[in-house]
Amino acid sequence: xxxxxxxxxxxxxxxxxxxxxxxxxxxxxxxxxxxxxxxxxxxxxxxxxxxxxxxxxxxxxxxxxxxxxxxxxxxxxxxxxxxxxxxxxxxxxxxxxxxxxxxxxxxxxxxxxxxxxxxxxxxxxxxxxxxxxxxxxxxxxxxxxxxxxxxxxxxxxxxxxx
Length: 162
Hints:
The protein is mostly helical. The chain has helices at 12-19, 26-30, 33-48, 82-96, 101-107, 129-132, 138-144; strands at 61-62, 65-66, 112-115, 118-121.
């Protein structure tokens, strides 16, 4: 099986425009063009793993390959919603800022951290659903929430490919 690269939801031009008037976007500003594109692709891949309401706009296959490889647009829409483009940018920013989604999920398992009596206990029964879903940006998560089928089980739908 050959890896097929799929274009991200938002491209670098969109991201640069999105972050132009935003504070705390240094990770985007300081990143190379290649790293920005990689971050946007990785963000798009993470978004596509979520369980969205409805169905893809085009679910046809061409030679066994989806005509529409990404989860958006959906239903009767023919364009990707602006919220999804913006979520892609926000998640890319977090990735460029060295947030590791795998490490974030692992950190949810720690309930007590410290040395001796100097320790911090954490209630892991509370929230952080965006971290569990592989979206380590709360801003991106809030933009995606209205499109999700079930926020209690966000990783039901499997996505194969780039």
